[in-house]
Design goal:
alpha/beta; Nucleotidyltransferase, domain 5; binds 5'-O-[(R)-(carboxyoxy)(hydroxy)phosphoryl]adenosine; binds zinc ion
Length: 333
């Protein structure tokens, strides 16, 4: 039997989870609201709030899983990539807990964990599969050959898809994080109302900075002509932006699936919570005869359940880290 306690603290959510023999029994997420006042995550504030949240989050995760801290066999934690100060809180907690109980520790790559979230529940994709991993900091098409054998075959050259969502919402005067709000308003809008350009980037890479600029100019020019332009057309603007971001992502994913001859196709990361993107993938999957895999919403945005499942597969291989380990702001797959 294996009881894994997992910690995730890479950005602005403090999360703890417990996984017993590969089954996730709890996934506690403490969101940080303090950043809303600043229009984006303030790293120093994020690490301070992680310090306040981490002990209660772990306690709740253990209680919900009906597991005593004495039953834990190993502690998994996000080593990177992420905000260094935020990661440091999770890494230090994991190391101290393990040291006090003489337990092994397991380092987890946050981007690999987003993909391994597909192994929390059935149905699970079979190897090799393609995963479009879209978060606040990353946009990648990953060829997943095995649990820890992953190759990035396409990625953004500038902004991430989540960043494009968040920056658009900022331009529209909406609070941070904007992705979920764009999703909410887009449901009432027409995605064909406004045409934003699709960047012409060769191969499987992405670019979102040109789109961001075109949205900025589009809003600026229309607001100059009509000061109420945003309020009067919010749903159509959100639907059109969301539609374009989704089509940029899905067109490249379709290209990758054809090039690599792969039929198992998955979505991961915070932006995979987006309704338009989820629906778009299913439609594309139907057209191409793919098996599509989309995680439950709670496993799309940052969570410790994905760290726990990644930790479980490393535990089975006996891959443990040394107590001297430090977090990494940048960490390749
Ligand atoms: O994976 P994640 O939780 O954190 C990072 O690792 O970055 O992703 C956060 C990103 C943010 O940009 C947020 O706006 C976006 O995911 N997001 C969404 C939705 N939910 C979260 N974007 C669009 N629609 C959503 N429903
Ligand atoms: Zn993430």
């Amino acid at each position: 039997m294996s009881v894994i306690l997992a910690i995730e603290s890479s950005c602005d959510d403090t999360s703890a989870a417990v996984c017993v023999d590969g089954v996730v029994l709890s996934n506690v997420i403490a969101n940080q609201t303090i950043h809303q006042a600043y229009g984006g995550v303030v790293p120093e504030l994020a690490s301070r709030v992680h310090q306040q949240n981490i002990v209660p989050a772990v306690q709740q995760a253990l209680i919900k899983a009906k597991v005593s801290k004495n039953d834990v066999d190993a502690v998994a934690f996000t080593r990177g990539p992420g905000l260094l100060g935020s990661l440091l809180v999770g890494v230090s907690f994991a190391k101290s807990f393990a040291l006090a109980k003489s337990l092994p520790i397991i380092e987890v790559n946050h981007m690999q964990a987003h993909i391994l979230a597909h192994f929390i529940e059935d149905p699970k994709p079979s190897f090799p599969f393609l995963c479009l991993t879209v978060s606040g900091g990353h946009t990648q098409i990953v060829l997943v050959k095995d649990y820890f054998d992953m190759e990035v075959i396409g990625q953004t050259l500038d902004d991430a898809a989540g960043e494009a969502m968040d920056k658009t919402s900022k331009i529209l005067g909406l609070p941070y994080p904007g992705g979920p709000l764009i999703d909410k308003y887009a449901r009432q809008g027409n995605p064909d109302a406004y045409k934003f350009p699709e960047p012409q980037i060769p191969g499987l890479d992405f670019s979102f900075s040109g789109l961001k600029t075109s949205i900025l100019y589009f809003i600026r020019d229309n607001v100059a002509a009509n000061p109420n332009f945003i309020e009067e057309n919010l749903a159509d603007i959100c639907a059109s932006v969301e539609g374009r971001i989704a089509s940029i992502l899905l067109n490249k994913l379709e290209k990758a699936a054809k090039e690599y001859g792969i039929k198992d196709v998955a979505l991961a990361g915070g932006v995979s919570a987006n309704t338009g993107l989820r629906q778009g993938l299913l439609k594309l999957g139907e057209k191409n005869g793919w098996n599509c895999f989309i995680p439950q919403l709670q496993y799309c945005t940052d969570n410790a359940a994905m760290i726990a499942i990644a930790g479980y597969y490393k535990y089975l291989k006996g891959e443990f880290a040394d107590q001297s380990i430090a977090p990494l702001a940048r960490m390749p797959m």
